[in-house]
Amino acid sequence: MAYCFNAKKTVSGLIEWVKNYFENTASTDTKAIIGISGGKDSSVAAAVCVKALGNDRVVGILMPQDIQPDIDYSRRVCDFLQIKTYTVNIGATVTAFMNEIKQHMEPAPQAIVNTPARIRMTTLYAAAATLGGRVVNTCNLSEDWVGYSTKYGDAAGDFAPLSDLTVTEVLAVGDELGLPYDIVHKIPTDGLCGKTDEENLGFTYAMLDRYIRGTDDLSSVPEIRKKIDRLHNANFHKLTLMPKFVLSP
């Protein structure tokens, strides 16, 4: 049977799933704590939580690093959903941390890139502990598939409403939820070098999504298929539980 995505059915399922998660694991006033970047994933995840819990139980945390040029998108999402927000600028924290590291070793480029994401997650858990909440993981299946996330950074969280949805499907869910089109379809960038996610990856999310769902084996572009497989295998550790030694009886 050909794969067919039903956005309306998925939205209904997502809302019910989030409701059940909170009903079964939390108190009636536990909040969903979510970092709002102004992109599709955090916007869609926040909208789902609002539908499931009510806007009084969803808290958006804006976390610019010094100046964030597109922070108005984040504010618009929160205003549209009518959720309480806090802005915590992580710029000084990142600078102080990296300066301390440099006293002992020269940080690798990967450490410089990943540290802000991990500080943002620390911020979200501090907010959750303070406000009484659960942290929303906003990663989608496409990004997870090729490791386009930071372990213990944006890849962390207490529950993940979008982790089984491709980018294409997240966009459809965002449209079904009635979010502003320009926010849902805003071209994602890494916020570092000015390139889009797709430019950094070397292929489009549409291609990746078709490959994941088995509707295109990418036989016409074998070099891209090979790259996707390599990225998936290299980053699969981000999606699995930490290996542990098992004591024999």
Characterization of this structure:
With 249 residues, the protein is of the alpha/beta class. It is 50% helix and 7% strand. It is built from 11 helices and 4 strands, in the order αβαβαβααβαααααα. Strands 3-2-1-4 form a 4-stranded parallel sheet, sandwiched between helices. Helix 2 (40-53) packs parallel to helix 3 and helix 4 packs across helix 5. The radius of gyration is 19 Å and the shape is globular. The termini are far apart.
Short synopsis of the structure:
By secondary structure, this protein is an alpha/beta fold.
Feature tags:
249 residues, alpha/beta, 11 helices, 4 strands, 50% helix
Q: How do the strands and helices of this protein lay out in sequence?
A:
Layout: H1 7-25, E1 31-35, H2 40-53, E2 58-62, H3 71-81, E3 84-87, H4 91-102, H5 109-131, E4 133-135, H6 141-145, H7 167-176, H8 181-184, H9 197-201, H10 205-212, H11 222-235
Parallel strand pairs: 1-2, 1-4, 2-3
Helix pairs in contact: 1-2, 1-7, 2-3, 2-7, 4-5
What integer value in Å does the Rg equal? Answer: 19 Å
If you average the pLDDT, what whole number results?
A: 95
Assembly state (oligomeric): single chain
Major β-sheet, in short?
Answer: 4 strands, parallel
Q: If strands are numbered along the chain, what order do they take across the biggest sheet? A: 3-2-1-4
Uncertain stretches of 5 or more adjacent residues: none
In whole angstroms, the N-to-C terminal distance is 47 Å
Secondary-structure class: alpha/beta
Q: Give the H and E element order.
A: HEHEHEHHEHHHHHH
Instruction: Give the helix level as a range of percent.
Output: 40-55%
Fraction in beta strands? 5-15%
SS field, number of helical segments: 11
Shape: globular
**What is the number of beta strands?**
4
